[in-house]
TrEMBL record:
Residue span(s) of domain HTH lacI-type: 6-60
Name this protein carries in UniProt: LacI family DNA-binding transcriptional regulator
Superkingdom as given in the UniProt entry: Bacteria
Keyword match Transcription: yes
Gene Ontology terms, MF aspect: DNA binding
Length: 337
């Protein structure tokens, strides 16, 4: 035996089962036959697995670590959510494993590998197919969906998106009387953006105003604001009077791109965002946006995941954190528009 002790692969090979089965037996979760459970436990004893750190984790059913999975890691949104998540993990004296899949084809395998190294995992909506999320839940792995539309039988935590975006859009349509609004963001890209597009459409419907047929489908980075602005100003039949962006990063990119074209914000084109990142309050007039408590979202995700690991939450949980419209100058308020 090596000085590092036996590996999980050796235990699985000795017992003639998969690594996932060894994990389920050690944690006492999932459906495993009595004969298989006995073979795995005997293999653990044979290899004297207890003295190693991973062995102690197997026997106790704990790794003293939580996992969190995002489609990427760049940008202030992810850093704030991670900071909140980590704060709560530190308080609970557990480690944090962070995975950015970048939506690679190997995303499912990457997540499955993480699951066997943590006690529970929070997965951002859109990273894994619904059937894969259910499969992880059904096999007994504590899984929590983050910023996702609910998946039947899997606990979910998210911020309120649809109603907040409807309120923001109504402010532009009714309070300012703007017409020809454009929505910048790709509803197919994330559940949050989908809800925000629906809120944008709902506000138009309630105001009796025809919305644009399609959003300007771009990503969520500042550079995407430049791409969207070029499309709006060069390809649309009419210049939009206001641009509703799916997040603040895109909105800030749009503001810079609009000004590069010699236009004024908000006098010529009003611009709004969503998230209320730190930069939103630093531009000259301030960015009108929707504040979502990103750090609190991360902290509450960790708190719920810890309870989930201990079997203390219901699988039907759908926790929604409230958001708030923040009015600044980029929509035209206080600018004399």
């Amino acid at each position: 035996m090596s000085k590092r002790g036996p590996t999980l692969h050796q235990i699985a090979e000795d017992a003639g089962v998969s690594i996932a089965t060894v994990s389920r037996v050690a944690r006492g979760v999932g459906q495993v036959s009595e004969e298989t459970r006995r073979k795995v436990q005997e293999a653990i004893e044979r290899h004297k697995f207890r003295p190693s750190p991973f062995g102690r984790a197997l026997v106790a059913g704990r790794h003293s670590a939580l996992g969190i999975v995002f489609p990427g890691l760049a940008g202030p949104y992810y850093s704030e959510v991670i900071a909140g998540f980590e704060d709560e993990a530190v308080k609970a004296r557990v480690g944090v494993v962070i995975l950015g899949t970048h939506l690679l084809r190997e995303s499912v395998d990457l997540v499955l590998d993480m699951v066997d190294r943590v006690d529970g995992i929070a997965v951002m909506g859109g990273v894994l197919p619904d059937e894969q999320v259910r499969r992880l839940h059904d096999r007994g792995d504590p899984v929590l969906l983050l910023a996702s539309r609910p998946v039947l039988g899997v606990p979910t935590i998210r911020t309120e998106n649809l109603a907040a975006m409807a309120r923001l859009t109504t402010h532009l349509l009714v309070d300012h009387g703007y017409r020809d609004l454009a929505f910048v963001g790709n509803p197919a890209g994330s559940p949050d953006t989908t809800y925000r597009w629906q809120g944008f459409l709902q506000a138009h419907q309630q105001a009796g105003i025809a919305p644009p047929h399609e959003p300007i489908r771009v990503g969520l980075q500042q550079s995407d604001g430049f791409i969207a602005t070029a499309r709006m100003l060069d390809e649309l039949p009419r210049r939009p009077r206001a641009v509703v962006c799916a997040n603040d990063e895109t909105a800030l990119g749009t503001v810079v791109a609009v000004m590069d074209r010699g236009l004024r914000v908000p006098q010529d084109i009003a611009v709004t965002g969503f998230d209320d990142i730190a930069m939103a309050g630093l531009m000259a007039s301030g960015l009108t946006t929707v504040h979502q408590p990103m750090r609190e979202l991360g902290a509450e995700t960790a708190r719920l995941l810890l309870r989930h690991v201990d079997g203390q939450i219901d699988a039907s949980l759908d926790r929604v954190i409230e958001t708030q419209v923040v009015i600044r100058g980029s929509c035209g308020c206080g600018s004399g528009v």
